[in-house]
Amino acid sequence: MNEKKILVVDDETDIREVVKDILEAKGFTVAAAENADEAFKALKDAKPALIILDLNLPDIGGIEFCEKMLKKDKDLSSIPVIMLTVESSESFKVAGLEVGADDYVTKPFNARELVARVNAVLRRAEGGGKAKRVSADTDKVIKSGNLKLEREKYSVYLKDRQIELKPKEFDVLWLLVSKKGRVVSREMIMDEVWGIDDFTESRTLDKHIKEIRRKLGTYGDKIITYRNMGYKFES
After folding, report:
1. CATH no. for residue 149?
2. pTM higher than 0.70, yes or no?
């Protein structure tokens, strides 16, 4: 019996019930919320193993909820998130991934796809999947010149100044610095950081690199682009 608890957040009653029925049939325990306030209360009552979050919530919206109420809360930021969206365009999928979502499912979806994605994200969250290989690095601190990264705190320091990176930005930088002097392919970065191998043509990685460079200032010039190949952090 699978006793993992999943929180489904969607303002459409039919969607909540369908997702609940699908997952409970596979042995999951499912809680439901129709808006961000209900979801936040449910999270404080019991921390779920996974959140399935509608992109278009009626109050603050799924993107803002994920970014501001989940990923910036130290007690909740580690909970994996799958976004539900009726939008099929790449920009909406990228938006979810950029704020820390782990995967997405486009409505309408079938039961097999939903269950497959739920199981894949849970495996990665438990350390059995590719997206956690970056986090599972045996080093807790890595340095390169004036740059220092601390894995456990997700902290980045340039000289004595702390640089604020989002979790996925940190993971990308950690991977590049840990392999400094080597070109890391786009496919490998997407696979290692997001655990997604069918999303390599998206612009989400490029946007993360751009933000990392901006936040590092002139030190960001050490991240070298190899067109159509990947990126390298100069040692």
Report:
1. 1.10.10.10
2. no
